[in-house]
Amino acid sequence: MAATTTPSSSSPPKPTVAVTVSSLTKKPQPIPWTHQETINLIRAYQEKWYSLKRGPLRGSQWEEVAVVVAARCGYDYNHPSKTALQCRHKMEKLRQRHRSEKHRLTATSSAVSSRSWQYFRLMDDLERGPLPISARPVLHGFPISDEDSDGERRKKRSMEMMKETERFRLEMENKRIRMILESQWRIVDSIGKAFGSS
């Protein structure tokens, strides 16, 4: 008589593999914002926000901001650019950071905080809004001291940077328009070929 072996309750349990659902469905991490993208976002948002008299932006307007940011950064169709939702979230984070930096600035009463965050000046200008015409500084024919000449040099550098930025913006806008026209011509051409061949 042969004895049959049955598994005993004392045998070690088989190892099980636990797989979490979150590890399988993990979203890809978004590409971090570059310095140039952030600057272009602030400026594009500022233009759109001021055109709406500082009213809230709707979804389609955020799309416009995203397109402007991509165009000013020189991105084409193949380069990943930021979505409208990413632009909105980034602006919310920038505004939060500006508020905390401004609070820190008033609490410490020093200019260190404004110098430590590179976007403070842009965000501060955004929040303050454009100066009314009556509040803009007027230059008079006073003699220029050494301090004034330093200020003048800074103003000239600032103006040169603004001109360069505006030139770059116009180039990017022209490039964006060319890309739109090119895509429209492709559509018209393909429609013409489709109807011409039948």
TrEMBL record:
Residues 142-161 are annotated as: Disordered. This is Myb-like domain-containing protein. Residues 32-95 form the Myb-like domain. It comes from Trifolium subterraneum (Subterranean clover). PANTHER family: HOMEODOMAIN-LIKE SUPERFAMILY PROTEIN, TRIHELIX TRANSCRIPTION FACTOR ASIL2.
